[in-house]
Predict the structure.
Amino acid sequence: FVADADSNRGTDRWMLMFTRGGPDEPWRAAYLSLLSKDEVPDFALDADGFAKPVPTGADSGLAVRPDRLSSSYVNYLMTGEGTEFADGPATSGLRAERQKHVRTPKYWTEYIDTPAHGGDFAPVGLRTKDGGGVVFFASYHRQKQTAAKGFRPTPPKRVEAVMTGEVRKAITLTRVFESSVRVPAKGAAEREVVFLN
């Protein structure tokens, strides 16, 4: 289930997606997305007032299958190929930002993106009133920064707190992105996936 909650940090809404492994398992927050009031989706409800789930496979009825979003996204980031995603900060903007850091006088950066599938990172979708859906999914993003001669990489402050040893030549950071996207219905005029968070 999803909770649309007030935020304690401004006017944004917190969309918390809860999942569980079975009827006897406890509910756990799997995804958190911060959305403006205008971005909160208009979810489709069943006769009992519950949100309608979107199947993750071929029967999803969406322009892009939820179980393929993570793979499609990381392929797009690595190659620039694919027309599934609308331009924005998490897509074309992220690729442009990375290009600025691939090679500088002080360091060069390598990026490796991989999909996250199953378990804690299984995609979850809810139907919207227009026949599309909002899908929550995750992906892994690694960046290795190697310093040029005479320089040393500077790890982010939040990373230094958990490091042992000293950074001399290179540092590799691994992040897990949890994303929420609006996916149009299969056959809709607008076919691009839009990142909400």
Notes: Residues 44-195 form one domain. Residues 100 and 197 are 23 Å apart (CA to CA). The radius of gyration is 19 Å. The chain is about 15% helix and 35% strand.
